[in-house]
Every structure is written in structure tokens, then in C-alpha cells.
Amino acid sequence: MSLRPALFLDRDGVLNEDRGYVARIADLEWVDGAMDCVARFKARGWFVFIVTNQTGIAHGLYTEADMQAVHKHLLTEFAAQGAEIDRIYHCPFHPDGNLARYARESLDRKPGPGMLLQAMAEFPVRREASFLIGDKPADIEAAHAAGVGGFFFEGGNLASFAEWALAAFEDGAR
């Protein structure tokens, strides 16, 4: 298999509006340009991964099954628009969690690079040609710790921002 670049995307605040804890399909509202962004990168032959901290699970606000239902809906919506997501990685852990089985540190929890490293171990990713778009400093820290570029999204149209980020990345911005 030949190596391909990957676009890593945070979920809440990047692909969908951040409404606190998005744990129900009814709470899922797409960011402008989210579908177009993914479709454009898939058309280029890139992998597209979602890497998302899901602290609400550790705090007992919703279950992994609730999150999986949201993710199943998300994948269906993207696929219907010709914008396939290759895989969603999530981290349900938080050291201050209320549920004992999730109350711990984890390399997967951003700013840790675990989810990105796992994607790169499971798929033939060309690390030096890959980058992440996130809306929190921890997202960018995770990207850099994994050896990929990182771009801070502050809202607006995600497709336009991703095109700008790709051009900046190709010009040497990290």
C-alpha cells in the first residue's frame, strides 16, 4: 500500500457546532463547509479521520452507546454527501471523571497524541504530509506531538479554512 496524507479533524467546534456535550443526534449541527471540506480532501485521495475527546462519558453525562449513535449518524450523513470519513477515534477518559472506569489519564486524551498515532499505525499515512484542524490548543499540541501539522480553527467555513490550511502547510507552516 502506498502512503497517503491524512486530514485529522476534531469533532465539536470543527465539524459540528460545539454545544457543550453533543450526546444526541438532535444536538448535532454542522459547521458551514464541513461536508465540502471532507469531500474535497477525499477527492484528493487523503485519509480523513476524526479525533475527539469525549469527556462527557467520564463525567457520566452520556454513555459510549449514546456517542456511538451520534457517530453512526455522523458517518451516514457524510457518506450521503460523498464525504466518507475513514475512521472516528475517541477518548472517553478524563482524570477527574465521575465514573471509575473512565477516571484516568490516557495518552489518547488530547493533548496526548494517542488517537493520531493509532490512526497512523492502522492506516498507511504519510505523516510529514498530514495535518490536523482543531479548535483548542490541546488539539494543536496533540498534532505536534504526533509529528503532524496543526491549524487552529476559530469558526467560519471549514472548507475555506481547510483550503487555506493546506496551502499554508504546503508552504511550510506547521
Question: At CATH's second level, what is the architecture?
Answer: 3-Layer(aba) Sandwich
Helix and strand composition category: alpha/beta
Query: What would you give as the CATH superfamily?
Result: HAD superfamily/HAD-like
Q: Helicity level, as a percent range?
A: 25-40%
CATH class category label: Alpha Beta
Q: What is the strand and helix layout of this fold?
A:
Elements: E1 6-9, H1 34-43, E2 47-53, H2 55-58, H3 64-80, E3 87-91, H4 114-122, E4 131-134, H5 137-146, E5 149-152, H6 158-170
Parallel strand pairs: 1-2, 1-4, 2-3, 4-5
Helix pairs in contact: 1-6
Describe this structure in words.
With 174 residues, the protein is of the alpha/beta class. The protein has one domain (19-156, 166-170): Rossmann fold (3-Layer(aba) Sandwich). 36% of the residues lie in helices and 14% in strands. The chain is built from six helices and five strands, in the order βαβααβαβαβα. It has helices at 34-43, 55-58, 64-80, 114-122, 137-146, 158-170; strands at residues 6-9, 47-53, 87-91, 131-134, 149-152. A five-stranded parallel β-sheet has the order 3-2-1-4-5, sandwiched between helices. Helix 1 crosses helix 6 (158-170). The longest helix has 17 residues, at 64-80. The radius of gyration is 15 Å and the shape is globular. 39% of the residues are buried.
